TrEMBL record:
It comes from Pedobacter flavus. GO terms for cellular component: ribosome. Gene3D superfamilies: Ribosomal protein S20. Keywords: Ribonucleoprotein, Ribosomal protein, RNA-binding, rRNA-binding. This is Small ribosomal subunit protein bS20. The keyword Cell membrane does not apply. Residues 1-22 are annotated as: Disordered. The keyword Manganese does not apply. InterPro entries: Ribosomal_bS20 (IPR002583), Ribosomal_bS20_sf (IPR036510). SUPFAM superfamilies: Ribosomal protein S20. The gene is rpsT.
Length: 84
């Protein structure tokens, strides 16, 4: 166990941030699955900006890599544009 006050505080902060990051990443994955399950273009196009925003936020906070966010956005956009 850590002995210094700053170490204890860092441990608490890290645990809080980890939980927040996990929640946001899991929520984003759920929205991605929801978008991929969409069958009509209207509902998918309505959901796409939300998912793109979530991916950008995760990349900005370094929860996921920026290239992973870019790849996901590209694939999802292609998917939505391919719907009828």
């Amino acid at each position: 166990m850590a002995n210094h006050k700053s170490s204890l505080k860092r441990i608490r902060n890290s645990a809080t941030k980890r939980l927040r990051n996990r929640y946001q990443a899991k929520t984003t994955r759920t929205f991605i699955k929801r978008l991929r399950a969409a069958v009509d273009k209207k509902s998918a196009s309505d959901l796409l900006p939300t998912v793109v925003s979530m991916l950008d936020r995760l990349a900005k906070k370094n929860v996921i890599h920026k290239n992973k966010a870019a790849n996901n956005k590209s694939k999802l956009t292609k998917f939505v544009n391919g719907l009828k």
